[in-house]
Amino acid sequence: MLATTLLQSKVLWYVMRASGLVALVLLTLTMVAGIVNVRRFATPRWPRAVIALLHRNVSLLAVVFLGVHVVTAILDTYVSVGWLAAIVPLTSHWDRFWVGLGTLSVDVMFALIITSLLRSRLSHRTWRAVHWLAYASWPLAMAHGLGAGTDTGAVWAEAVYALSALAVVGAVGWRLRQPTGRTLPTARRPTLATGARS
Amino acid sequence: MPTPSLRDAWLRRSRTATGLVAAGSVAGVGLFAALAAEPHHTVTATSSTASATSSTTAKSVAASGSTATTTTTLQSPTTTPTSSSTSTTTHASSGGS
Questions:
Q1: A chain contacts of residue B10, beta-carbon cutoff 8 Å
Q2: Which of A9, A106, A155, B62 is most buried, most CB within 10 Å of its CB?
Q3: Rounded Cα distance, B65 and B52, in Å
Q4: pTM
């Protein structure tokens, strides 16, 4: 009864749009925390270990909201996306290209999460190589939002996109300005219980 | 190597920060969903009409050189976009926005 009401109402449609934007914001926070941490940014109040834990926790939160976004997109009856399109890019019945970019971003994110969870079993080089894909995941998600998002054009949505872009571009710019070779060898990096190294 | 108490403090801080981010995210979904439910194109239509009118205003002022013309022309955005905003509202509430 409740499920039927939900499916017939517009709640799923609005939750799908909102959770997509929140997932993008969380992905942005994850990116920024990862970028500043890799260059050993720290303050007495925000030591590296805390930033590393925050990076991990926020990335898992992003996955949760991404899950909500994907599930509501599939369940919603206004657009026909299809279950397959959640995993395989360019198979959506609706807005194939832009939805496909979103699917690619999800696939990359899952590769990042899985390799990070299995990090102790992987070589640092392999993990790092996969983690570089994060730099592809964020622009893919941004392009998906701009292209497929029906809120693109609304002032508030444009503000979210602009602030997210500003945050990531600022963090990347800051990282590039830092002198190279400042990262510590893997064995000497500070760890905190759960393998939160970077 | 951090002391156990320092480690606990770091863990608490990261948990607090994560909790705040999680709460903000849930609130964000609510806020964005409410904003998405509004017919936002009305705002765009109004602002574009307003800017179009203000450019007309500028031309009118330039032509006549009087402030009276300015006042009269600026009142038009409140009435002009009514028809366009109504049509967009229907579009947005049907889900396409």
A1: 47, 49-50, 53, 192
A2: A106
A3: 19
A4: 0.72
